[in-house]
Write a structure and sequence with these properties.
Number of strands: 2
Strand content: under 5%
Strand order of the largest sheet: 1-2
Helix content: 25-40%
Structural class: mainly alpha
Largest sheet: 2 strands, parallel
Number of helices: 5
Order of helices and strands: HEHHEHH
Length: 110
DNA sequence: CATCTGACGACCG
DNA sequence: GCGGTCGCCAGAT
């Protein structure tokens, strides 16, 4: 499991929606689960258009600490995501990958 | 090699 | 709903 796959999936998150570390871990079958996904996000390169702020904890909880925590809030708010407290309405803004990471392989045409 | 830590998550009291 | 514990794995020391 390369972190590249994780970043690629994160890039597919629609604007104004969010997903969780766990969802990503399950969709990509990441060994180590959500923890490693979070680890990957923590080291995600900047300036590559990776919407890391759209990745939240299970149930839509905001878990990133300062200084990125407030930044994430601001970014999501700018996309129209309402954040009452320390939590996002995941039922409303949640987005499920529901598909594995786009493989570079040629699509098998049967 | 031993330990600790962390942008997680499920459980439990 | 909140805080503590444990399992998980990759890096750092």
């Amino acid at each position: 499991m390369a972190w590249n796959e994780i970043y690629r999936l994160v890039k597919r998150i629609p604007r104004g929606r969010v997903t969780t570390y766990g969802e990503i871990a399950r969709a990509l079958r990441v060994r180590g689960g959500a923890r490693v996904v979070g680890y990957a996000m923590a080291g995600c390169p900047n300036g590559q258009g990776i919407p890391w702020h759209r990745v939240v904890g299970a149930g839509g909880r905001l878990i990133i600490r300062e200084p990125y925590g407030s930044l994430q809030r601001r970014m999501l708010g700018g996309e129209g995501v309402d954040i009452p407290g320390t939590r996002i309405n995941y039922k409303r803004y949640g987005w499920s990958p529901s598909r594995k990471a786009p493989t570079k392989k040629k699509p098998r045409r049967h």
